[in-house]
Amino acid sequence: MAGCKTAVSNVVMSTVVMLTLLLITPLFKYTPNAILSSIIISAVLGLIDYESAYLIWKVDKLDFLACMGAFFGVIFSSVEYGLLIAVCESQLVFRLCY
Predict the structure, then answer these.
(1) What contacts 67, CB < 8 A, 6 or more positions away?
(2) TM spans, by residue (predicted)?
(3) Are residues 35 and 73 in the same domain?
(4) Of 11, 15, 30, 80, which has the fewest beta carbons less than 10 angstroms from its beta carbon?
């Protein structure tokens, strides 16, 4: 909410987003897919939290296994498969350990 005090800011924000999508998105029509994918990759690299993964590694190795399964499932397939892999791995570990 960038310091706004009223709900009018939501109206202004939604209007700006709508105008941006309507007016600027057609400019990307002729942009090569390699350029668009490099933009997405550079944006996603900042979302990876190495410190949390290292903390999970120090606390519990089996949870780290589920974390990495979810990560690689999302990277190489989709969010749904990454979540499915993490749930299945955590259930398997739970059944084996307890």
Answers:
(1) 53, 56, 86
(2) 7-28, 34-57, 64-87
(3) no
(4) 30
